[in-house]
Design goal:
Layout lengths: L1 H14 L10 H39 L11 H24 L6 H22 L10 H12 L3 H23 L19 H41 L9 H18 L3 E8 L2 H8 L1 H18 L2 E2 L5 E2 L2 E6 L2 E7 L3 H23 L1 H9 L9 E8 L6 H17 L5 E3 L4
Parallel strand pairs: 6-7
Antiparallel strand pairs: 1-5, 1-6, 2-3, 4-5
Helix pairs in contact: 2-3, 4-5, 4-6, 5-6, 5-7, 6-7, 9-10, 10-11, 11-12
């Protein structure tokens, strides 16, 4: 029943355009999760800002009761707009908090809500004095929000430009009386019709807004670059630049869950270098490390991936441990997995020692070492035929790999085959 509910929900989301009809990759799901976390952070920040504004309203209320306050200029319009805007912002943020998890097109959703916020702030600026409004600073907050939740710097600069144009358009409409200005207490309201003042004010708001955009983009680029560097350190093996053992278990579990949810296939290869201990004893650990790097290059050139911009990877290559490698093949049935493993084995056997280093090439030719070639044994398991969880998949592929070893090494064995 659980799978049926998930499928029904997915179908509804696709029908109403909330998510794409294509099956997302694990990287896309991870990006979606990260984007939603940033959106959630902005929602929490909005609640904090609303709480601060509510506190300021209480603070201002007590001083408006003082004899020196310009209270006579505070009309029912001012009061109703202030209260109405606050309640609208509360309702909008509550709705956004409730619904944002429904969407997978996070970038378009963020663009739409930022533009909506921009319109809302511009209306608020108008009803709080226009050219003399204190609320022009809210444009800065929107620009910082864009820098936080949008991945592309151009989106942040676009929101900053939109704020500049919105404020300039509002001042223009008020100056030519297309929209009547709203008088404000404590202000020289004649400035609302002073051309020089409005141009100077608009220029200042524009400069500050773009400065905030520049700082926000620079700050977030630095943060995201450092996050990527930390992610590399945590998930990658230093010797081969493959994903490490810890990430392998995490990613295999993610791919299995994805295959279960969307009814897809999945294969796992476990590769072990034949007679690696003898190779290390003969040539030393440094040459053994060079061999493993060469092995990684062969695997990297065989699986489905690309380093072209934008880079992508379909298959996930990991260093499982020591001289063992693992390759996760999403969307790959058992037979396809076997064919991929055979290509890997043949490529490594053919290029083996030549990948290591030219200085040991002659020694491999003259030293009796398994025919002077480097070989691997590969075990293959597939979901759901050989296992429906991480432990079962690894055990099946591992047993198949040892079966290949017992059968004479330098071969591929598929789990369950006699």
């Amino acid at each position: 029943m659980g799978k049926g509910l998930v499928k029904t929900l997915d179908d509804l989301l696709v029908k109403y355009g909330l998510i794409s009809g294509e099956v997302p990759t694990t990287e896309e799901l991870a990006w979606l999760k990260e984007s939603r976390e940033r959106v959630e952070m902005v929602i929490r920040a909005r609640w904090a800002i609303l709480a601060i504004l509510a506190g300021y309203a209480v603070y201002a209320y007590f001083f408006f009761r003082h004899a020196t306050a310009d209270a006579l200029r505070v009309t029912p319009l001012h009061q109703s707009v202030a209260v109405g805007a606050f309640l609208f912002a509360v309702a909008y943020n509550a709705w956004y908090q409730y619904t944002y998890r429904w969407f997978s097109r996070i970038r378009q959703l963020n663009q739409a809500q930022l533009l909506f916020d921009l319109v809302f702030v511009t209306v608020l600026v108008h009803y709080s004095g226009g050219a003399v409004s204190w609320f022009w600073a809210m444009y800065m907050i929107l620009t910082l929000e864009a820098a936080l939740i949008m991945d592309k710097p151009s989106d942040t600069y676009a929101i900053a430009l939109a704020g500049v144009l919105a404020f300039g358009g509002l001042l223009t409409f008020e100056y030519y009386a297309l929209i009547p200005p709203v008088p404000m207490p404590f202000e020289n309201n004649e400035l609302q019709c002073n051309y020089s003042y409005e141009m100077i004010k608009w220029g200042w708001v524009s400069i500050v807004n773009f400065c905030v955009a520049f700082i926000g983009v620079h700050m977030m680029n630095t943060v995201r670059r450092r996050e990527a560097e930390m992610r590399e350190l945590v998930t990658k093996d230093a010797l081969t630049s493959f994903y490490n053992r810890r990430y392998f278990f995490h990613r295999l579990n993610s791919e299995i869950q994805r295959a279960k949810r969307y009814g897809r296939t999945l294969s796992l290869l476990i590769l072990d270098v034949d007679d690696f201990k003898r190779f290390n004893d003969t040539y030393g650990h440094l040459e053994g490390d060079a061999l493993l790097r060469g092995m990684a290059d062969v695997i990297r050139g065989t699986i489905r991936r690309s380093d072209a911009k934008p880079s992508y990877e379909v298959d996930i290559a990991c260093r499982y441990g020591g001289e063992e490698f693992a390759v996760i093949l999403p969307e790959a049935a058992q037979v396809q997995g076997g064919e991929t493993a055979e290509r890997l084995r043949a490529s490594i056997e053919a290029r083996g020692a030549s990948i290591v280093a030219e200085k040991i090439r002659r020694r491999i030719e003259t030293t009796p070492l398994e025919g002077k070639t480097v070989t691997v044994s590969i075990g293959v398991s597939s979901y759901p035929e050989h296992g429906e969880d991480v432990e079962m998949m690894i055990r099946a592929a591992d047993e198949a790999m040892y079966k290949a070893k017992r059968a004479g090494k330098n071969r591929v064995a598929i789990s369950g085959d006699g």
